[in-house]
Amino acid sequence: MVICCHVLFLSLVLPGIWASSVKHPVISLDIGRRVTYNSAGHDINVKRHERDGQVFYYHTLSRPSKLSEITVDGHYIHADLFPLEDELILSSLVYWRYDRPDMLTLNMERSQVFLWNNGNGRLVPQASTLDNYGKGDANAKVTLDVSQTRGYSAECGYMNVRVVEETNLPGYKVYRHKSRPFLLEKVTDGGWDQFGITVPCEITSAYVYKWDEKPLILRFELFNFDTISFVCLINRWVRVDIPGPGHPGRYHYMRKLLSYLNCASGESVIIQLRNTVNGHTYADKCTFPNLPTLNGASMRLKVIPMTGHLQNFKEFKHTSKGGHPFEIRRIMYDKRDVLIDVPNKPVESVSFIVKSTGNILNSAFQALLRSDLMDIIEIHSDIYEYYRCVGGLHFVKFAESNVPLRNKGEFRHIENYVLVWKDGKCVDTGLKKTKTLAL
Q1: What residues does 418 pair with on adjacent strands?
Q2: How far, in Å, CA of 56 to CA of 140, rounded?
Q3: Confidence at residue 365, expressed as pLDDT on a 0 to 100 scale
Q4: Which residues, if any, are the signal sequence (predicted)?
Q5: CB < 8 Å & 24+ apart, contacts of 404-407
């Protein structure tokens, strides 16, 4: 009976002491719970995980809180929490053995506490789970620098950085930042603080998705195997939910999301072939479910009369208004898609080379429907790639070169092959097969 009175005293007095001096919620952590529960009016989300046969439950708080007590199915269990009274709890990882909570980790603001249930109504302090990950301050919060492409020193010790493969995301680079598990202080990009990123629990790896070295997505892998992701919108990071690596819809979702982010940052565009007026500018709208509709990059059209062997042609050259490289999201004529296998890399310009009749340019649509098949799309990236119209709105690649092709004889087409040119000379006469395009 004396023990029961003692328990009642602690559970009533401690919340009163802390609640009077802070504005944060004061919660009771119930390590016996296996489903989401409510404490002091705040939901604590509980998820079950398994690792190497070990079962554990991850308790995530809806917001940082003061911890008044720890219970098991509502029954008080003794733990010395006074050393933590100046810290807020962010989350807890509870290991189960023999169908009862055996050990737990408290992820606090500045520290991590590892406790063991000795079976006698007490939680005994043990070494932190961070202790085995090398040198560095185990309690320090880490500044993650997304500009880094090689390893660098961090508060937790050494942060290893390497490029990982995402075979379904050609053109994008993914950098993995990995060290011993750490808590996040802030994210910077070469010293510039990135705002809006808060991860309230321990991180094992951070993945930075980039296009042309510009960060677009940050994905954090957590100690409990959950993930938290953020996307960069107008120089601010926004939390999003991204399907996990094993999800069947992940590839489609990631391609659409990255394309939207590139569009919003002015890096991804839709080329509109219908435009034929010299000096015309146009822009696209960037849309994605549950994210704001934004304006994309402005594109500029320049009409260039061609000379020499191509004097009966005109070049309609599309470049970004700011002169920076971009990703081709789609090529269209009005509301119709052009069927073309565009390169997955930064592009400098896209030119539509169309034959004129009597110095009067046919409309782009009429030109596409002609049977002489002399309409060409030139895409300039690190090389020049050439695509010929083979009917309707279907273009296939037939040549590539290190310099622009401007001789009519260089535009010959061998079906199903790509001719390779260097400095005006053909150096490969058909060893490089084109990809088959699905109609």
Answers
A1: 432
A2: 25
A3: 45
A4: 1-19
A5: 404/378, 404/380, 405/378, 406/306, 406/308, 406/309, 406/310, 407/308, 407/309, 407/310
Q: What is the pTM of this model?
A: 0.60
Whole-angstrom Cα distance, residue 117 to residue 111? Answer: 20
Specify the 3-state DSSP secondary structure of 63.
Answer: strand
Q: How far apart are CA 165 and CA 162, in angstroms?
A: 10
Strand 313-320, strand 349-357: pairing:
antiparallel
pLDDT of 299 reads: 93
pLDDT of residue 52: 62
Q: What is the CA radius of gyration of the chain?
A: 30
Structure tokens at 117: 């249930």
DSSP 381-432: SSSEEEEEE-STTBEEEEEEESS----GGGG---TTEEEEEETTEEEEEEEE
CA distance 353 to 378: 7
Q: Are 202 and 183 in contact (CB under 8 A)?
A: yes
- Residues forming beta bridges with residue 12, ordered by sequence position: none
Q: How far apart are CA 108 and CA 302, in angstroms?
A: 59
402 contacts: CB under 8 Å, gap ≥ 6: 383, 384, 421, 422, 423
Strand 268-272 versus strand 327-333 pairing type: parallel
Q: Give me the residues paired with residue 401 across strands.
A: 384, 421
- What residue type is assigned to position 34 of the chain? R
Question: Using an 8 Å Cβ cutoff, are 418 and 405 in contact?
Answer: no
CB 185 within 8 A of CB 208: no
Closest CA to 350 of 323, 330, 379, 375: 379
What are the structure tokens assigned to 394, written together? 């279907």
Alpha carbon distance 39, 26 (integer Å): 8
Sign of the C-alpha dihedral computed for residues 344, 345, 350 and 353 taken in this order: negative
Contact 119, 101 (CB under 8 A): no
Give residue 283's identity as a one-letter amino acid code: A
User: What φ, ψ does residue 82 adopt, rounded to 5°?
Assistant: -60, -35
Q: DSSP state, 320?
A: E
Q: How many helices (H) and strands (E) does the chain have?
A: 3, 31
Tokens standing for residue 266 = 């002015």
User: How much is the pLDDT for 218?
Assistant: 95
Mean pLDDT for back-to-back runs of 10 residues, the chain (439 residues)? 31 34 78 90 86 79 86 85 76 84 80 77 62 44 88 76 80 88 86 84 89 90 82 88 83 90 87 90 91 90 89 91 88 90 91 68 45 74 93 90 89 86 83 43
